[in-house]
């Protein structure tokens, strides 16, 4: 082969190699998208930033369209269409900025690095983005972490008439305050379930501090996948749709067991509601406690 022709062939081969390498890089960096059903937005974040994660879950019943970008104005925002029930994962060590349409207006929010978020409907049935509790693809996000104020905890236990014969389960136990208080105040046994390892750690610490480790235990689990039918009292502080999701498990409780729900009713359990109580906590915030008997 003449030298000139050979050189041209080598150049073409090199070009082909560069193209193949670029395709491989694009496929690798967008690998999370095929896993989560997103549409390439992860590439909005440079490789140097790929340390922490922001996840966004779609808990509505429609595809949510949004755009997301870094603070770097030279980088184009990425348009994402997030399917129902899917999660987008964005590797980033900095805040991201999200925009979406809400009631005909464009809403923009800053999302904090390392945090999970969810698109849900607000009380007016409008699309809104909320903080979540985890970004796991394999588990439902029942509610973000918001602890029940201690005076409300006391009232919940009082309404359920908790005593030393009770076995109390807190579904999504946060820092374990409900089962710890039930053990400390009434000598009740308790189990706290939470999906967040940080909450389970705090629960163990709280139980040790209160000296009730022999009465309570904590499990890092997806609460929708556990059997808590042995409980005599169940406490919940979860979103209404999450309460509805737990009904098949609540239905398995023994007859006479009590369920106490902070702020939200249990859809489908209307005939089991036996009491409710409204109160203000020490900061003046309003709370409602619903009591059910299985
Ligand atoms: C509103 S907080 C309630 C905390 C505690 N029960 C209280 O009243 O102080 C809800 C908790 O549910 C947990 N959670 C969310 N999804 C969960 C799941 N699938 N399984 C178990 N826990 C979950 C969150 O991590 C969070 O700690």
Q: Which ligands accompany this protein?
A: S-adenosylmethionine
SS strand fraction: 25-35%
Q: What's the number of helices? A: 6
Number of strands: 15
Give a short account of the largest sheet.
7 strands, mixed
**CATH superfamily name of the largest domain?**
Vaccinia Virus protein VP39
Q: Give the radius of gyration.
A: 25 Å
Would you identify the regions where 5 or more consecutive residues have pLDDT less than 50?
A: 1-50
Overall tally of domains = 2
Distance between the termini: 88 Å
Strand order of the largest sheet: 11-10-9-12-13-15-14
Top CATH class of the largest domain? Alpha Beta
- The amount of helix comes to 25-40%
Which word captures the global form?
elongated
Q: What's the CATH topology label of the largest domain?
A: Rossmann fold
- Mean pLDDT, nearest integer? 87
Description:
- This protein has helices at 3-29, 31-36, 150-159, 177-186, 197-210, 240-250, and strands at 53-58, 64-69, 78-82, 87-91, 96-102, 105-111, 116-121, 127-131, 167-171, 189-194, 216-220, 233-236, 258-262, 273-280, 286-293.
- Helix 3 (150-159) crosses helix 4 (177-186) and helix 4 packs parallel to helix 5 (197-210).
- It is built from six helices and 15 strands.
- The chain has 294 residues and is of the alpha/beta class.
- A hairpin with a 2-residue loop joins strand 5 and strand 6 (105-111).
- The N and C termini lie far apart (88 Å).
- The site of S-adenosylmethionine (SAM) has 27 residues, from helix 4 and strand 10.
- S-adenosylmethionine binds at residues 133, 139-143, 145-148, 170, 172-174, 177-178, 193-196, 199, 222-224, 237-238, 262.
């Amino acid at each position: 082969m003449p030298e000139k022709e050979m050189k041209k062939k080598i150049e073409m081969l090199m070009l082909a190699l560069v193209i193949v390498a670029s395709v491989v890089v694009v496929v690798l960096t967008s690998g999370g998208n095929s896993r989560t059903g997103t549409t390439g937005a992860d590439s909005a974040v440079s490789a140097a930033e790929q340390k922490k994660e922001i996840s966004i879950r779609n808990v509505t019943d429609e595809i949510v369209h949004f755009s997301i970008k870094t603070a770097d104005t030279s980088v184009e925002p990425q348009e994402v269409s997030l399917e129902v029930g899917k999660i987008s994962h964005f590797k980033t060590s900095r805040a991201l900025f999200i925009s979406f349409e809400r009631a005909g207006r464009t809403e923009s929010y800053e999302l904090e690095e390392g945090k999970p978020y969810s698109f849900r409907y607000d009380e007016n049935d409008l699309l809104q983005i909320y903080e979540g509790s985890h970004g796991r693809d394999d588990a439902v996000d029942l509610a973000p972490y918001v602890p029940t104020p201690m005076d409300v905890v006391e009232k919940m236990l009082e309404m359920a008439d908790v005593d030393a014969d009770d076995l109390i389960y807190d579904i999504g136990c946060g820092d374990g305050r409900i089962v710890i208080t039930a053990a400390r105040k009434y000598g009740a046994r308790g189990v706290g379930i939470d999906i967040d390892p940080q909450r389970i750690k705090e629960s163990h610490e709280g139980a040790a501090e209160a000296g009730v480790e022999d009465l309570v235990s904590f499990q890092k689990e997806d609460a929708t996948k556990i059997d808590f039918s042995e409980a005599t009292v169940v406490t919940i502080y979860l979103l209404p749709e999450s309460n509805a999701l737990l009904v098949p498990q609540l239905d398995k409780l023994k007859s006479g067991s009590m369920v106490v729900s902070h702020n939200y009713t249990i859809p489908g359990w209307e005939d089991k509601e036996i009491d409710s109580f409204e109160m203000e906590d020490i900061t003046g915030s309003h709370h409602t406690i619903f009591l059910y008997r299985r």
